[in-house]
Amino acid sequence: MERELAFFEGKIVPIEEAKISIKTNSFHYGTAVFEGIRAYWNQEEEQLYILAGYQHYERLLKNAKAMFMELPYTPQQLVEITRELLKESGVREDIYIRPIVYFKDLKLTPKLVGYTPEIAIYLYPFGAYLDPQKGIRAKVSSWVRNDDNSIPARYKIAGAYVNSALAKTEALLGGYDEAIMLNANGFVAEGSGENIFLVRNGVVYTPSVSEHILEGITRALVIRILKEDLGIEVIERPISRSELYIADEIFMTGTAAEVTPIVEVDNRKIGDGKVGEITKKVQEVFFSAVRGKLEKYRNLLTPVY
Ligand SMILES: Cc1ncc(COP(=O)(O)O)c(C=O)c1O
What we know:
Elements: E1 5-8, E2 11-14, H1 25-29, E3 33-34, E4 37-42, E5 47-51, H2 53-66, H3 75-89, E6 95-103, E7 117-124, E8 136-140, H4 161-173, E9 178-182, E10 188-191, E11 195-200, E12 203-206, H5 217-229, E13 234-236, H6 241-245, E14 249-254, E15 258-265, E16 268-269, H7 277-290, E17 301-303
Helix pairs in contact: 2-3
Bound molecules: pyridoxal-5'-phosphate.
Residues 36, 153, 164, 190, 193-195, 214, 216-219, 253-255 line the site of pyridoxal-5'-phosphate.
């Protein structure tokens, strides 16, 4: 990255100028909604590709609307702003993009009406978040996933990530890499920042979107890869904790996590404790698709240059 810039209050500015007051309403109550988007550098083409930009901004605007944070932008306009931000910043590497919608009012009272929403976007150089090569060790968390009727995980609300932070911290302090959270009904929900899939006898299972999870964009892409490219059946249904321990393979998906294998859960090896064959095949298609190497998935990518 040649210059560190941000989109702030309607303009692209140097990062030092993108500052908010400690009185900002959303800072106090976590009433912000955000996104995580990746852009991948393709060295051969000397091109940077934003992955699923439209889908991320569409989700952001819908979530923001549900939180009474309507913005005067379309998803396409936000993709264009992001393209401009990446171009002006001179990004020629893999990068993570963080858009966040917040109430800029310098007023107290935790509510969602009568305030002014604002959007900021900044860039964060970010390699692999977990370990997609070796896989990770996960722990079923003692922290229960936010219930849809308390703080919907679906909306990617800043404040909801206290739940993720508690679970992730418990996992890290226990010597694990990531947490797997159960929902209030006791079924598997998701990781602190990832959706989860498991493989049993050649069939892939993942919690359905009514299981108190974020409707992951990587999840949707991976379901498509499994069904269309690999011809594997995918079933969305409640998953019990005990099924994790007897799965042949488990992997997590997310913009940050990409496709990360889980090789151990609660000190039990998954399968033979190595990265599974179906997981490897999904990774192969996924990592080719995101760098623009598969014609079929090119329409998910926005070239920056
Ligand atoms: C709690 C949670 N679940 C799942 C995901 C994966 O979603 P996506 O694939 O849209 O990045 C994320 C990451 O954004 C997340 O924070």
